[in-house]
Amino acid sequence: MTDSTPQGMHEGPAVGQDEWVARHAERRIMRKGPLGELERRLRLVPWWAWLVLFIAAFSLLPVFESSGYVRRVAFDTVLYMLLALGLNVVVGWGGLLDLGYVAFYGIGAYTYAILDSDKFGYHLPTILSVPIVVAVGALAGLLLGLPSRRLSGDYLAIVTLFFLQLFQTLTTNGDSAFGHDITGGPNGILNVDAFHVFGHELAAQHGGVFAVSYLYVALGFFAVVFVALRFVNESRTGRAWRSQREDPLAAEAMGMTVNWLKLMSFSFGAAVAALTGTLFAALSQSVFPLTFYFVLLITIYTMVILGGSGSQAGVVAGAVIIAPLLEMLRDASKSRVIFFVVLVVALAFAARRSRALALVALSTVVFGFAVHALCGGLHASWTAGDKAGGLAGLVAHWVVVPAHLASWIPPVSYVGVIAAALACTMLRGVARLVALVPTIYLSAFVWENVMLSKPEPARYIVLGLILIALMILRPNGLLGERRVEII
Amino acid sequence: MDFFIQLTIDALTLGSVYALIALGYTLVYGVLKLLNFAHGDVFMVGSFAGYGVFQVLGGANPKVPLWLFLTLVTAAAMGACAVLGVAIERFAYRPLRDAPRIAPLISALGVSFFLANSMQLLFGATPRNYDTFDIQNAVLYTKGFNIGNVHMPLLRIITIAAALVLMVALWFLVNKTRTGKAMRATSYDREAASMMGIDIDKVIVFTFVLGSALAGAAGVFFALRVPTTVSIGFIAGLKGFTAAVIGGIGSIPGAMAGGIILGCAESYSQGYISTKWSDLIVFSILIAFMIFRPQGLLGRADIRKV
Amino acid sequence: MKKATVLALAVLGTSVVAASAQGSSQSAAQRYASAAFNCKKQITMPLVTPVTGGAGFLGAIQGSWAKLAVQQIAPQLHLKVKFVLGDTPVEQGPAPAQALAQKYIGDPSVLIVLGPSTSGGVAASSAAYFQAKMAHISPSATRTSLTQGSPKDATPAFFRVVPGDYIQGPSDANFMIKNLHVKKVVIMDFQEPYSTGLAAAVDTTLKKAGVQTIRLSASNTTTDYSSYVTKVPSDADIVFFPTQKPGDAQTFAQQLIEQGKKAKVFGGDGSNDPAQFKQPGSYVSNFAPDITGIASDQSIIKAWRKANGNGQISSFGPPSYGAAQVALNAIAKACKAGHGTATRLSVFRSVKKVQIKNWILGGSFKWSTKSNDPLNAKFYIFQIQSNGSYKLVG
User: Fold this and answer.
1) Whole-number Å distance between alpha carbons of A112 and A128
2) Fewest beta carbons within 10 Å, which of A371, B64, B222, B254?
């Protein structure tokens, strides 16, 4: 899970890594033909070029998309990228399960709101307040790390979770802390200033529409954070982090100050989160306690794990995938498209992998039409639901969508599909292939009939499933390197 | 004095529910060294399963005698949770048994999230109220010990007594049976136990059955008095885990003591100090506990051999 | 060298593009605000309300009534309207309301928005709507400072069809003083915006009248109120319990009986749900009367029951019907004045001109001239009867 180079090529053995492990990536059998050639060429592109390309591509988005909403989603994605980068320091490099991470995001947002709003009338210039906020965040990270440094694993997780809870309690009740109103309590702080530098105000909205300049500011923050963290990771500290993550005892025996290293990683992560908090507060011009809570935490974790904790490029990729995905899943028609695109792509890939899987894919399609015809033949209303045009209409020829859903169908089919999927993991050989067909069909049925109508829980069910499946199937995520263990 | 006794009764009711949840954490932690984040949501599912059976058996007008009615509801919830717990272990934790310790933790977070939202998908966010109050003209609320201003109604007596019975049964299972012995051996040293011919998988499944069943019972005892929603799992789990830590994670009497202590801390801080800041007080105590005495009251300190 | 050139070019290109996008964003916003919308096209009308989460019942009720209003009234006004729900779970605080505001402002087919339902959501998103020159009408946000006092938490783009806590707080308190002759009242809040505001308003009025008050505060995640019940003095007359979770009010009332306390629970509009809060003897206040007794509403009630399986009519629903009615009429007025086209601004301006003869909550509807509140609106107080029904008592 190291990230000595994002492309996996190693330039030489690094401290804290075994030579054999370090050169693990190089021993992979490279693809032949033009694809392999392309891959080799791509690997030669340095990381900073990738970064520039990525940011350039991202900044081009507003040219093609004039909707304030889409731009706002893009901005939120950058916020998530930043948060994921920060969490990666703690989880990926430090190896510490920090469940209080979003509290630092909140601390950043609140500190900015206190420094720049009518609440106390301070209105510090941004150029001053942002560094202060980052310092406060780093300090808060140190403070949380201080008592936690003796703890590891689960205990650390729970103490940090309490810290998040404490943050919630303090901000919600901070409207009467010793008779002073500091945080505005549950009403939060309103009328927070937008960024303003040298007398120029960078308005957060133009006519209520998201001001695209904030997208660029966020991208700027992102570039700075990405590069800075990269240098940190390649420094002595970064190598020390990795070695204490792999084996704290050995690291300590080598004379590394393990406790101090843990504090550092807490502090770095917290500082990044706090920095992101300023952006959030300045854009939404308000802060509320409940924004910084468990759902957000899980979302960021999913990004880091999906992308590959430990790899900067990975966690950014995770954010770029998850943030728009969650947004699109809010909308039934987009949600439907996502499901069927994923399904078709997965079936197509499966078909290429082996002939048996191709057969499964084919029979799933046939099975669907057969069930649809059967149900339609038995009773017309069973397949009479949702005959809208577009993909919905197309899908309704394959999936059974009843006009009226009896109240027992959702729970039974939902539990059924879970049971079927779990059963598939236990079956072997032909039985599994046979069982896959109705399972896939049933999942399409559930998605179409149960999940689409309740986007809010459906979104988070998807997140939960991603987390569980990733941990089991590919704990290194998309771009994280596989851990090589030598016994 | 009346006030103090009444608060203590509140604390005991609250604490016995916490203790039951804490036992689940402690058992699983003892055997697997895994913080089962999904445990709070198993508790939530238990309260819903109990609700279902409660309604099937006639709701506020039970079709069977009251004692049998309550027993059936509790048993059903315990059974449902046991099945759920085993499924979670089999599919979400077992594949990760030899992975780095952070992996099952994250998987557990995923399971917790998945369960809470699945329940919301299926049953909505509307709170479910057992309507225990309406049973036979509020007999469970108004009968019982009423001395002066101190009220100990039947429902609370039942809750505390049932929790006690379950804990004693558990103690007996763990200390006096063969399986219990295997559990203790596994918790002491998994590898050595497996070399001694103990079927580790079986022990772990058994542990999950016990822990989850207790969570199911806790869910029912909780929801008999308070409306339940799909989102109670998070806070309940947090409290249960805290109770387990206070008592010393891995220690069964510790979990019971921890539950009661936590209940008292909540009740007394609300009663005597401030209702507004009681959460803060409780959480601060906990953080202090974790830092200064992570092995808890009755746990043994973790000595690492290199 | 070559790489550096490529890099420099990329950066240059990006900045040029960025600058141009910056310009286009401003014009896009203005375009939306003053864009003439052909009234024959399909209009989208969102209702921003908690659909999931602990207050999900609110979204279900409000959604069903607003949808009914759109179905019934839009055709009469010759409008084609698509009704959509925007979800703001209370557990996530007011932030989702902001994100939704962005979404609707960016959608040219939205001319006016219903909601947000919660005062916190209104405070968080009103500025964006105002900048977009788009009105938003809430059927249930009652915080006083949204429309009154200075500084206000909401902008002039915010309207509400129900009176605020400036009426609810005092009228609840006055009812306690005059009708119930209270001496001692326990006042709870739940550390969220709704209850803290209302509790403070009741507290002030009661104290002025010389009633002794005891303040208790529970966190929003509290489930078991036993020790709060224990803290209620045995000579207290009323526990004011302005929760948004009606089931909690029910539990609290039952636990008071459990401990032999004589105090009755008094809930605010947030606990007005006959399905969950039904402990006889308790009180509930609401901004809407029981509409089942209003003659002109019978056809509406029939239609609602037909669509919603004979569900119970709770007082939360009808104001959403009213809000949608006002919004639709505002669009129709703007369309008429604009000869078949309307803009967000013209709809915004015509909101205050709307008057409705047979108002769903009884009588007729007019706006107050001083603020964006309804004229002469009042709060209604119900007592729960032994069969669980709500009886109007004040």
Assistant:
1) 10
2) B64
Q: How far is CA C290 from CA A421, B215, C139, C279, C392, in A?
A: 49, 42, 16, 18, 8
Tell me if residue C185 falls in helix, strand or coil: strand
Nearest to C273 by CA among C63, C61, C118: C61
Ramachandran category for residue A459: left, alpha or beta (phi over 0 → left; psi -120 to 50 → alpha) = alpha
Please answer yes or no on whether A190 and C133 come within 8 Å at the CB atom: no
Q: Which of residues 405-464 of A touch B (CB under 8 A)?
A: 410-411, 414, 422, 425, 450-451, 454, 456-458, 460-461, 463-464
**Token pair for B180:** 């219990």
- Most B CBs within 10 A among A88, A148, A162, hence the mutation to make, goes to A162
Of C192, B257, C265, C204, the C-alpha closest to A289 is C192
Per-residue pLDDT of chain B (306 residues; tens, 9 = 90+): 889 999 999 999 999 999 999 999 999 988 888 889 999 999 999 999 999 999 999 888 888 899 999 999 999 999 999 999 999 999 999 999 888 778 888 899 999 999 999 999 998 878 888 888 888 888 888 888 888 788 899 999 999 999 999 999 999 999 999 999 999 999 888 888 889 889 999 999 999 999 999 999 999 999 999 999 888 998 899 889 889 888 888 888 899 999 999 999 999 999 998 888 888 888 888 778 777 877 777 776 666 555
Structure tokens at A354: 């082996």
| Nearest CB partner across the interface for A162, out of B96, B117, B287 | B287
Extract the tokens encoding B98: 């030899």
Which of chain B's residues have a Cβ under 8 Å away from the Cβ of C232?
none
Residue A467 in 3-state DSSP? helix
How far apart, in whole angstroms, are the C-alpha atoms of residue B247 and residue B257? 6
- Say if strands C113-114 and C136-138 run parallel, antiparallel, or are unpaired: parallel
Phi–psi pair at C91, nearest 5 degrees? -65, -20
H or E stretch at C42: strand C42-49
Task: Give Cα A207 distance to the centre of its chain.
Answer: 31
CB of A103 within 8 Å of a chain B CB? The answer is: no
* pLDDT attached to residue A241: 87
Name chain A contacts of B109, Cβ cutoff 8 Å: 298, 301, 467
Task: Tell me B144's DSSP state.
Answer: E
Q: How many CB pairs under 8 A join A and C?
A: 163
Q: Rounded distance, CA B89 to CA A154, Å?
A: 18
Q: Do the Cβ atoms of C109 and C331 come closer than 8 Å?
A: no
| Torsion angles phi and psi, residue B146, rounded to 5 | -130, 100
A482 Cβ under 8 Å from any chain B Cβ: no
DSSP state of A192: B
Enter the tokens of residue A63: 């040219």
CA distances (Å), A166 to each of A187, A375, C90, C217, C221, in order?
Answer: 18, 54, 19, 16, 13
Identify the three-state secondary structure at position C136. Answer: strand
Model ipTM over 0.95: no
C-alpha closest to that of B127 among B219, B225, B228 = B228
Q: How far apart are CA C117 and CA C141, in angstroms?
A: 5
Three-state DSSP state, C379: coil
Distance from C-alpha of A179 to C-alpha of A156, rounded to nearest angstrom? 33
Q: Distance of CA A375 to CAs A370, A372, A378, Å?
A: 9, 5, 5
pTM of the predicted model, to two decimals?
A: 0.89
Q: What share of chain A is helix, strand, coil (3-state, %, to 5)?
A: 70, 5, 25
B258 burial class (0-12, 13-18, 19+ CB within 10 angstroms)? Answer: buried
CA distances from A474 to A3, A469, C56 (A): 17, 8, 36
For C215-244, what is each residue's pLDDT tens digit? 999 988 888 899 999 999 999 999 999 988
Give Cα B111 distance to the centre of its chain: 17
